[in-house]
Amino acid sequence: MTHSEAEHHFDQITPTVEPLLAKYPRPPGPESENNPLVLALPPVKSDDEWLEQLTSLPVFDKSQLQDLAYLRSYYVAELKNFFIPAERARQLSRRVDQLIRFGYAKRNPLGGEHFRKLQQAYSEAQTAKKQQPVKLVFSEVRPICSFSLIGVSGMGKSTTVDAVLAAYPQYLLHESFGLHQVVWLKIECPKDGSVKEVALNILRAFDIVLGTSHAPKSASRITVDDLMSRVKQLARAHCLGLLVLDELQNVSVRKSGGREELLNWFQELVNELKLPLLVLGTFKAREVLQLDARHSRRAGVMGGATWRPLGRGSEFDLLVDTLWSFQWLRSPGDLTEEIKAAFFEETQGIVAFMVDMYLVCQLYALGQGKETLTSEMFRHVARTDFEFLQPLLNALRSKQPHRLNKFSDMEAYDIDELIHHKQLLIPQTAAEQLEDKPGTSMVARASAAMRSALGVSDSEARRWVESVLTAQHKSHMTLTSDALAAFFKARSERAGDACAA
After folding, report:
1. Band of pLDDT at residue 14, cut at 50, 70 and 90
2. Helices 157-165 and 47-54: crossing angle, nearest 10°?
């Protein structure tokens, strides 16, 4: 691609993501210190600035405590966006910043090398279309331009990366050079997908940002080499600064033709394009990366870190202490050692579980007309509303490797749906918070709540209520909650059976 062709391409783009006009602290030039790709980035942040960037806390006003319970439930729901960064998050933010800046260090678009490589990429793409493979030899990479982050689901890997990426403009327009710079792309590896599908997702991500149509509508007759060449051409043309591949464990090693194809492609992107990669995944992703002695030759390409659940210590205490300060109950009570022990026992230090269970626990209390959290309440919510997590949590509690290997991935759940149905159980007037009156059918009231929440028939609502009814139920609220839990558990099991079939 010549310089005039690049300018023509510049005129044709109708971006989906609005580009920001690139601004420089000093005039850009061909020298390394005047690289416009680096000059246009935000200044390097201090550790304190990164902590502020990553922190996300809900708005809390004591005057909200005067509102009715059902209104307070909407304030509580804001906790789903709660995030306070630990030391590991700060370290990751620094690593991402280094990857982007190191990757751009040798890629000054004002140097003649830039357009020579664009022409080379174009030629390779044309060759791939004719299915004439070209053997390429790549040079050694310095410094490390890739990083893998492995850990159990729910430890905030994706949340942290999203917050870090938000500190950079994704799309910069260098008007004077006719250059569209894509600073970062983040894609999710498709479930049980192949390397071909990963490449397609990268092309689609470019299209979303640029408003283009590089991803083919049908890829049945397109080779992996062709798609990879398109990815490399776009990465060069738009000076991609960082490619983030999330949920790497979803990639099927068998469909992709083996680990070697995937790892070789990673190495091509890093070596040939000087394109940094950030790979995220659960422990199962290790099967894809296969980072062992047989692949020690790649050690210079793929550095990494592992995020494990929190233990009982200062980091765990800080998280619980901060969470406890966000309560929309009128008599929150003291954070006792017993409550902290319940927090740890029922979540095993997985951050997402700690936040979600604490949130739902407050909704449960509001639904029961209670204004104080207890350890018993937290355990009840953990064992009922989050019953589906118990196999994984029991494996973590056992600390037995053979049991943990069975739960390398966490079953996904929809916290928004859980919040919504808990909110439906909260009375909307003060009068409705009274205990069930003698002579009022508890089953009838629970059935009515089920009809309202699910939109099912009278007979079906009553059937679900009666299926869970025991002598222990003293309130229509607890009966409705248990009936809803049974309904969603059965629906989840049916969905799982359908997927297996």
Report:
1. low
2. 110
Q: Is 327 exposed, middle or buried (0-12, 13-18, 19+ CB in 10 A)?
A: buried
**Judgement on whether residues 270 and 338 belong to the same structural domain of the protein:** no
Residue 152: inside a domain: yes
What values do phi and psi take at 46, rounded to 5?
Answer: -80, 170
Between β-strands 171-174 and 20-21, what pairing exists: parallel, antiparallel or unpaired? parallel
User: 29 exposed, middle or buried (CB, 10 Å; 0-12, 13-18, 19+)?
Assistant: middle
Q: At what angle do helices 415-424 and 442-454 cross, to 10 degrees?
A: 140
Mean pLDDT to the nearest integer, 331-357? 94
C-alpha distances in Å from residue 71, one per residue of 3, 347, 428 = 59, 28, 8
Q: What is the CA radius of gyration of the chain?
A: 27
The predicted pLDDT at position 72 comes to 93
The pTM score is: 0.74
E strand or H helix at 100: helix 87-105
Residues 6+ positions from 163 with CB-CB distance below 8 Å: 53, 54, 56, 83, 85
Distance separating alpha carbons of residues 390 and 448, to the nearest angstrom: 30
More confident residue, 79 or 460: 79
Same domain for 130 and 145, yes or no, is yes
Q: Which domain holds residue 113?
A: 3-34+85-307
294's tokens: 């047989």
C-alpha distance from residue 383 to each of 116, 316, 377, 378 (Å)? 62, 21, 10, 9
54 pLDDT above the threshold of 80:
yes
Q: Are residues 273 and 330 in the same domain?
A: no
pLDDT bin (cut points 50, 70, 90) of residue 299 is very low
The percent of residues above 90 in pLDDT, for the chain, comes to 41
Do 316 and 295 belong together in one domain? no
Answer with the one of 250, 272, 307 that is the final residue of a domain: 307
Return the bridge partners of 20, or none.
172
pLDDT over threshold 80, residue 135: no
